[in-house]
Amino acid sequence: MSEWPAICCGVCRICCFTVYQKCCCIKEPPAIPVYDLLCLGITNAGKTTLLSVLTSENIDAIVPTVGFIIKDIRLPNAVLKVKELGGAVSIRQYWHRYFNDVQGVIFVVDGSCTQDELHETTDALYKAIQNPELSTKPWLILCNKQDLEGACTEERAVEEMNLTEMLKEKPNIIVKSCSKTNPDGLRSIIERFGNRLNEIHNPEMRETFDAV
Ligand SMILES: Nc1nc2c(ncn2[C@@H]2O[C@H](COP(=O)(O)OP(=O)(O)OP(=O)(O)O)[C@@H](O)[C@H]2O)c(=O)[nH]1
Ligand SMILES: [Mg+2]
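Above: the input record for the complex with guanosine-5'-triphosphate. Below: its predicted structure, written as tokens.
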């Protein structure tokens, strides 16, 4: 019986320490920010395919997008809610209706396209990037299909699409090469874009995540 006071005292001390830990030391993890993005590019560029790779979906039976589709890409420190707009000519004329309230744009270029298609791509890119709703937003331009022989590299895409000056003036535009056959490379590009979105839209996020 004589050990009861010691046991009670020990239990009390554990309870007090647990309450102290909960109140003072352990912070709730920060809420992960959600960004609304657009995914643009002419038909056959590979938009749905790349988004499906990023969401680990099957890419064997993808059909051209009619209207739009939305996919959520979960990253360690952000969720990207990506709205892909179909790239057919008949759909492109309505793209501008979706330009408001987005926080960034992923533009996909078919690295294996013909010269005519590259002109068409350049035209579609300029129309979107010069729109006041999108011109100041962060852009990620993906030069896709690098697995195909003779595919246009990101350097050549920059040159042929006359992007050199624009890239100097606008640090919010990033150009990267990718392919559906390199999911890890694609994911790391998207994660860096997620970090960029945090730096621009939620600068406090970086510190908070570092601290956790
Ligand atoms: N070799 C190769 N083929 C790809 C790659 N990415 C996409 N494709 C192929 O390109 C074709 C078109 O892909 P989609 O994802 O439907 O293209 P999209 O840009 O969504 O086209 P729309 O929805 O019509 O605007 C499909 O046959 C894909 O398999 C890639 O990295 N390498
Ligand atoms: Mg599509």
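Notes for the reader.
The domain at 34-211 is CATH 3.40.50.300 (Rossmann fold).
The radius of gyration is 23 Å.
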